[in-house]
Amino acid sequence: MATEDVKLIGSWASVYVMRARIALHLKSISYEFLQETFGSKSELLLKSNPVHKKMPVLIHADKPVCESNIIVQYIDEAWNSSGPSILPSHPYDRAIARFWAAYIDDQWFISLRSILTAQGEEEKKAAIAQVEERTELLEKAFNDCSKGKPFFNGDHIGYLDIALGSFLGWWRVVELDANHKFLDETKTPSLAKWAERFCDDPTVKPIMPEITKLAEFARKLFPKPQA
């Protein structure tokens, strides 16, 4: 493990923090995990990310790096001689990976989250249909990017795997809440198998949050209106 001064400000339940943690583990970088208390923001967080005031923040040699996907790219470049490359080697493949990572955050996740915040069954049904439609697009993206290999990035976990894989815990929580399976072996067989491989990967498995614990946290974060 590398012994450089590395700290990560975040929370165990955050998908965005998960991205940074997976990248650090892929590169075998030791780090201090500074967990934020739910409902409050530490002085260090506010000082390190004065613009957005959000986690995660990676602090490397006393210099802060913010925003999850930027942090993942930074980790790949700062420790380029350690562990596998996270970003694809070809410029076009890198561009495609960044495109789909942006799609996941800007469109797919918005739909997924709307299931938890839906007001009434009709609104929830519409959100579920939208998630299914957008997940099928990701199924096609996986087949195009992986070229028949286990991960979006090919033989090992990479940038786009991290971007989507960090959501898998919350994805399961939403499935339980909606009583609906999105990673369907019939509709999205490639993604369903990829999700199993991702969660079972020795880099990811130790830091993937327990679904029951995450579901309990979700009930606090997205309380249901009283009947």
UniProtKB/TrEMBL annotation:
Catalysis performed (reactions): RX + glutathione = an S-substituted glutathione + a halide anion + H(+)
Compartments reported by the entry: Cytoplasm, Cytosol
Entry GO MF terms: glutathione transferase activity
EC number, as in UniProt: 2.5.1.18
Family annotation (Pfam families): GST_C, GST_N
GO biological process entries: glutathione metabolic process; toxin catabolic process
Annotated ranges, domain GST C-terminal: 90-221
Location of the GST N-terminal domain: 4-83
GO cellular component term, pick one: cytosol
Major localisation: cytoplasm
Annotated keywords: Cytoplasm, Detoxification, Transferase
InterPro entries per UniProt: Glutathione-S-Trfase_C-like, Glutathione_S-Trfase, Glutathione_S-Trfase_N, GST_C, GST_C_Tau, Omega/Tau-like
Similarity remark: Belongs to the GST superfamily. Tau family.
Protein's UniProt name: glutathione transferase
Biological source species: Arabidopsis suecica (Swedish thale-cress)
